[in-house]
Amino acid sequence: MRKGYHPGDMRLDQRLAEALAPFGYNAFGVIARARFDAAAPPPFRCDVLHAPARSVLVVGTAGPWHWRAFLEWIAADPLARLARERHPLDAFTADVFARHVDAPGARIFFPTADATLDFAKMAELAGLGRPSELGLVLVDPRFGAWLGLRAALFTPEELPDGAVATRACDDCAAPCRAPADALARRLACNVRPELAYDELQRIYHYDRPRGRALLCARFGVRDQLLDFPEPRDV
User: Fold this and answer.
1) How many domains is the chain partitioned into structurally?
2) Pick the residue with more confidence: 16 or 8?
3) Is the CB of residue 13 less than 8 Å from the CB of residue 28?
4) pLDDT, position 31
5) 1 part of a folded domain
6) Is 227 inside any structural domain?
7) What pLDDT score was predicted for residue 4?
8) Domain membership of residue 194 as a residue range
9) CA distances from 74 to 1, 93, 220 (A)
10) CB 123 within 8 A of CB 60
11) CB atoms within 10 A of CB 86
12) CA–CA distance, 64 with 218 (Å, rounded to integer)
């Protein structure tokens, strides 16, 4: 522990950035309650979702590091964590948050479990990205087109408010508009291309059955959920 340092000296966003860095969580943005409520429909304002909240902290992952940590997590028990798990990537985030997130008084939402919340809009308000030429994919000068949204914490802690970021697609030649499939268009984005997902990670997100099959083959297990649906996340 650093001299003179105490965890209580750090804000929630700072504590989480430190605790979650080893698992690839590297994008954090804040929405003050007033700004969140001004943008949210009445059924999704803080007084309904979590009345004590004073800030909303949006957590994301940019680049391939979250995926690589996910593979290490699967390796510890591939049968339970992959072959028998319908949403292994979500289970990974839930496990990491359960073990490493200390957020007294907060309510935590996850995109798959809380699909009625507009995580893309929250990320935009938190300054993590802007709508792009790629449809559902946000693009940001720091993260390029390779940002995944993992959680939102409605916390009673008052954190420094974020701001909507500059739109990276403005004044761009937009190579992503060329006729191609969704993944090829995403790969064509010229904002931070070095953060592109690993090949297996891209397959998993854009072709879930093939991605699961390749993961199961990698870890030497038989998929126990061959009838799973095919959700796509980013």
Assistant:
1) 1
2) 16
3) yes
4) 98
5) no
6) no
7) 38
8) 7-219
9) 30, 12, 11
10) yes
11) 14
12) 18
* Residue 217 near residue 76 (C-beta atoms within 8 A): no
Amino acid at 161: D
- Concatenate the DSSP letters of all residues of 48-117 into one string: HH-TT-SEEEEEEEESSHHHHHHHHHHHH-HIIIIIT-SSHHHHHHHHHHHHH---TT-EEE-TTTTTTS
Kindly report the three-state secondary structure assignment for every residue of 128-177: CCEEECCEEEEEECCCECCEEEEEEEEECCCCCCCCCCCCCCCCCCCHHH
Which 8-state DSSP code applies to residue 32? E
Cβ atoms of 152 and 59 closer than 8 Å: yes
Residue 225 lies in a domain: no
pLDDT in tens, 207-217: 999 999 999 99
Task: Output the six-digit token pair for 85.
Answer: 């798990």
The SS3 call for residue 28 is: strand
Tokens encoding 71: 């593979």
What integer is the mean pLDDT of 67-78? 98
What contacts 190, CB < 8 A, 6 or more positions away?
A: 172, 173, 175
13 found inside a domain: yes
Instruction: Quote the pTM value.
Output: 0.91
| Residue 228, pLDDT above cutoff 70 | no
Secondary structure of residue 188 in the 3-state scheme: helix
Q: What letter does residue 197 receive in the DSSP assignment?
A: P
For 172: left if phi > 0, alpha if psi spans -120 to 50, otherwise beta; the answer is beta
